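FIELD: query
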Amino acid sequence: MTLESYTLHIILPLLTVAIGLALVRIVRGPSLSDRVIALDLLATIGIGVVGVYVIATGQLAFLDVALVIALLVFLGTVGFAYYIERRA
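FIELD: result
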């Protein structure tokens, strides 16, 4: 089994299940903090999906996309944390 087939047949379905579980936490999260963490997790899983795509296709340009997504998610998480701290 090659690395490309391993990523497409095993890792990608696991990431899909993780996306579903994160969406459940976003919908059912009892507090705003839980929803923010689940949204951060969802973006992190999205970065993982981009990484799997890069491994499967060999297009290294998408690593820049993953880096930009990671930076935006970090800034968004810091913004939400600031908002939650001010609200309390």
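FIELD: remark
Residues 15 and 30 are 24 Å apart (CA to CA).
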